Every structure is written in C-alpha cells, then in structure tokens.
C-alpha cells in the first residue's frame, strides 16, 4: 500500500490507474480503524460494492465536524496500526493529509457545503454544524479522488443520507454503497469511540441494540410510535444512559412517520453512557433473521416492551 499526503500526489496516482482503465473505489475514514472499517475496504472490491479495481482510503480527523465541546483534540489517532490494517485488507492507496492540505485558507475561510432537509433533525439538532463539516469535507475528498464508487457504513445512517442527497443534488457520478453495521458479540455497533468505554460500560452498551430490536418488535406489533419511543427511552435510562433520542422515522427523509405507517421505517438511537456518546439504528423489518443473527452472538433477548 502506498501512502500520500498531498492532493497533487493523490491525483497523480489515481490518474495513472485511470489511464490503465481501472475502476476506483473510495473509503473515507477518520482513522483509529477497526473491523467495521476494514469490512468497507473488502466490500468496495466486491460485486455488491461495485467491483473496484483499486481502492483509496483516506484518514483525516476533520475539525469542522466537531463542535466546541466535542472530542476533536482527544479523538484517538493510531496511524501505524491503521496503515497495517488497511494494507492487510487490500487497500491500494492511503491519503493522509494534514489540516492545512484540506483547508488551505484556514478553517474559518473555507468553503462550506450545506445539505438541507435530511441534515436538520436528530444529529443536526444535537450537533449544530456537524453536517456542514461532513458535507464540506466529503465534497473536497470526492473532488480529489473522483471515485467510481464510495462505501460508507450504515451505523452513521443520517450521514449516509446526507452524502446520498449531496451527490444527487451536485450530480456527481459516484455510486454510493451503504455497508452493513458490524457488531461486537453483545450487539454493540463497532465504533472508534467504544474504546472510551470501561469494560463494564462496554458490556452494558449492548442494550442499545436490544432497545432497537424492541422498537422494531413494537412497531410490527402495532404499538403507537410514541409508546415505542417512550419505552425505549425508559429502558435506556433505567440502565443509566442519558438519551438524546430514541425515535422511529421515515428511512428516506428522517421525518416523523404517518400514523399507521409500517413500511420504510427505521429506529434510531443516540445516547451517552458515562462520557461516551453512542449512536445506532435498525431498519423496521418483520424478518426475524435480524433477531436470529443477534441471538447467535450469545446475547439473550427478552422483549422489554412486555416487561416495563
């Protein structure tokens, strides 16, 4: 795997591949990589992921998507470990720019990209300015790499919607693939921020996925959305989470669903455990395969909708 740090080097490498007729895939990350990230590299090369002949990954902790009281300064940075993992999983080129390379006029003077509608609720309410930072840096990265296909994890579901809308509005010819969430044995969605959790907190954090499964069951049983959400919040708060939201929304717009709507829904949770903020989501699906998969990870599941 080659490593470049400047836009000029990146463009030269990608241009050489294109002269050879290669299809280019892209996986943007902020580093501190885990198996969830590495699965994106694998998917990028697969038929489902668009069969990229060459894969570029970026590692850039983007300051503009962190709020003033968030963890930009202490966000974990593990470059040697990340480089070894990417190389082992078939990445061809790592782009690891400095802040000055991505923001040549300084952060305060940089161009900003705003994506309306889907960036407004949920994370948009709890992290003002976050999605402007995301959309701006993703636009910069897409312009530099100009990939044929890009892979994003579905754990950051709202971010995926923002990127998809960005591409459609700007008419960028890039195929976006949403990769399945990779989970730990207790159902906790893999995240770089999981390492902030103590061992006891990490085990307890699996309750977020249990709550999502309960929300799915509640909707499929015809329970009113408000009751499904109220019970999920009660579950989490009983386990000493501080809940930002636990909601059922339209999967395409993140707007509140119509009463009686049962198709095209998704459950989303954001909650703090100790000092760590965790997010997760689950499509509302009557297929019991999701539950069976969860139970094979040796986590007992009791429907909390009937227990509270």
Task: Indicate the topology.
Blueprint: E1 2-4, H1 7-19, E2 24-29, H2 35-45, E3 54-59, H3 79-88, E4 93-95, H4 99-102, H5 123-126, H6 130-145, E5 149-153, H7 157-170, E6 175-179, H8 199-204, H9 207-220, H10 225-238, E7 242-250, E8 265-273, E9 276-283, H11 289-295
- In CATH, what is the homologous superfamily of the largest domain? HUPs
Radius of gyration: 20 Å
Question: H/E series, N to C?
Answer: EHEHEHEHHHEHEHHHEEEH
From the spread of the alpha carbons, the general shape counts as globular
The CATH architecture of the largest domain would be 3-Layer(aba) Sandwich
Distance between the termini: 53 Å
Characterize the structure shown.
There is one protein chain. This protein has 308 residues and is an alpha/beta fold. The protein has 2 domains: 2-179, HUPs (Rossmann fold), CATH 3.40.50.620; 192-299, Pantoate-beta-alanine ligase, C-terminal domain (Pantoate--beta-alanine Ligase, Chain: A,domain 2, 2-Layer Sandwich). 37% of the residues lie in helices and 18% in strands. The protein has 11 helices and 9 strands. The chain has a 6-stranded parallel β-sheet, sandwiched between helices. A 3-stranded antiparallel β-sheet has the order 7-8-9, with helices on one face. Helix 7 (157-170) links the parallel strand 5 (149-153) and strand 6. The protein starts with a strand and ends in a 13-residue tail after the last helix. The relative contact order is 0.12.
């Amino acid at each position: 795997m080659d490593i470049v740090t400047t836009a000029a080097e990146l463009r030269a490498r990608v241009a050489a591949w294109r002269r050879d007729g290669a299809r280019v895939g892209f996986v943007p990350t902020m580093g501190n990589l885990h198996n969830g990230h590495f699965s994106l590299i694998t998917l990028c090369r697969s038929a489902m992921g668009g069969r990229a002949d060459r894969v570029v990954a970026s590692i850039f902790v983007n300051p503009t998507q962190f709020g003033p009281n968030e963890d930009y300064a202490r966000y974990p940075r593990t470059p040697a470990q990340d480089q070894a993992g990417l190389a082992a999983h078939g990445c061809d080129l790592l782009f690891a720019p400095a802040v000055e390379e991505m923001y040549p006029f300084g952060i305060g003077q940089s161009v900003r990209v705003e994506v309306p509608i889907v960036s407004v609720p949920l994370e948009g309410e709890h992290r003002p300015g976050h999605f402007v930072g995301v959309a701006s840096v993703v636009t910069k990265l897409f312009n530099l790499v100009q990939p044929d296909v890009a892979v994003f994890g579905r754990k950051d579901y709202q971010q995926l919607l923002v990127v998809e809308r960005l591409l459609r509005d700007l008419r960028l010819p890039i195929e976006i693939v949403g990769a399945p969430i990779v989970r730990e044995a207790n159902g906790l969605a893999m995240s770089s921020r999981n390492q902030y959790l103590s061992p006891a907190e990490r085990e307890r954090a699996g309750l977020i996925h249990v709550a999502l499964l309960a929300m799915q069951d509640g909707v499929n049983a015809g329970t009113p959305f408000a009751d499904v959400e109220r019970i999920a919040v009660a579950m989490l708060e009983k386990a000493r989470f501080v809940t930002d939201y636990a909601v059922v929304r339209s999967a395409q717009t993140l707007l509140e669903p119509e009463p009686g709507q049962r198709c095209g829904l998704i459950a989303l949770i954001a909650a703090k455990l100790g000092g760590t903020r965790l997010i997760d989501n689950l499509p509302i699906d009557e297929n019991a395969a999701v539950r069976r998969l969860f139970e094979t990870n040796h986590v007992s599941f009791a429907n909390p909708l009937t227990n509270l």
